[in-house]
What does this fold into?
Amino acid sequence: MQPHFALLASYNRWMNERLYAAAGTLSAEALARDRGAFFGSILGTLNHLVVADTIWLQRFANLPGRDAILAPVRALPTPRALDAMPFPDFAALTAHRRWLDDIIERWVADLGDDDLRQVLRYANTRGDRFGRELASLLVHFFNHQTHHRGQTTTLLSQAGVDVGITDLLALIPDAGADAAPPHPH
It folds into this structure.
């Protein structure tokens, strides 16, 4: 399972690089303009992703053996709201996103199958308590990122900015036509 999550971590970085490069072509006013999205603006949506990733990485840091790589994230203030704007400045947000993506990739690369089977006990932002397997939480973690990056891609498109290819398929190595299994029908 770990290679699957490593692919998702690489995709996360790759898409964030593309998204931030596209967003960087807009003015600060255009980035902050309320466009009617869940988190208002392009800047608001990108900040939400940083907030949510920080919350999840701080939770993941509570698992045994994860302290070293996730320690810098654990040291951050825990966001108090999902719509918080810790980085109203796009350049600072971009630098922080790159930093988080590096930590995510290094942390996922360090995970083993036993780690992925661990149950994480945590409380959500409302205080409800849960115990869920790390592998399933990682699926949610990466899916949440994809969901809001899709929203941001739409907002950018509406602003006249093309992000280009966004499919995970672009990062999956081609094993060649001869290696493809026969069609089942």
